[in-house]
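Regression test case RT-17, inverse folding.

Input:
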């Protein structure tokens, strides 16, 4: 996912708006986050239209200071989790990307069938590019979710992994004479002998 974040003071200045438009056009971000916008909702709606974003979420200014704006395209399915005058916390929703991938792959299969007989070759190229972008986005979203889960639950995951390791650890075995053995080398020999006889007999 490509995104742009800027502490954008004096957004009412035409030069600043022009700079923002050029940045968006040059980098093609899926998401733009602006801070210190200091503008009313009606003005920010004009900015959204100028930048050609599909969606917008605003945290209004307080008096003549503050103000946050989040613009994003339809290929990102966002859920606004929490917000305040100082932050906007969003959660990615995977279903939209997965659904789009499924739909595009079906369209690609049909387009490839037509391309065999020389029809719609250009459509195949377009669909493959769109699928590549969606797959990159999906991978980015999975990485983001994994990072978030680790930051939130890292200690829990570590303890669970440690617990599983303890369950899978063999502390000792009983030999053929009924003697309990805990020496690692002897335990290894017992295991090796057991599985060797098991597979040789089968």
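Golden output:
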């Amino acid at each position: 996912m490509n995104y742009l974040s800027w502490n954008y003071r004096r957004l009412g200045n035409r030069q600043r708006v022009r700079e923002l438009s050029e940045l968006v056009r040059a980098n093609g971000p899926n998401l733009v986050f602006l801070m210190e916008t200091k503008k009313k909702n009606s003005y920010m709606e004009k900015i959204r239209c100028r930048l050609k974003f599909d969606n917008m979420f605003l945290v209004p200014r307080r008096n003549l200071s503050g103000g946050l704006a989040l613009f994003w395209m339809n290929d990102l399915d966002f859920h606004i989790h929490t917000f305040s005058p100082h932050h906007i916390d969003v959660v990615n929703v995977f279903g939209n990307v997965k659904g789009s991938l499924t739909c595009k792959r079906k369209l690609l299969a049909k387009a490839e069938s037509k391309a065999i007989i020389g029809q719609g070759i250009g459509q195949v190229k377009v669909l493959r590019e769109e699928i590549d972008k969606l797959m990159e986005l999906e991978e980015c979203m999975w990485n983001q979710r994994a990072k978030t889960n680790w930051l939130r639950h890292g200690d829990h995951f570590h303890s669970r992994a440690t617990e599983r390791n303890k369950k899978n650890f063999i502390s000792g075995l009983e030999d053929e004479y009924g003697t309990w053995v805990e020496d690692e080398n002897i335990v290894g020999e017992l295991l090796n002998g057991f599985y060797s006889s098991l597979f040789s007999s089968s």
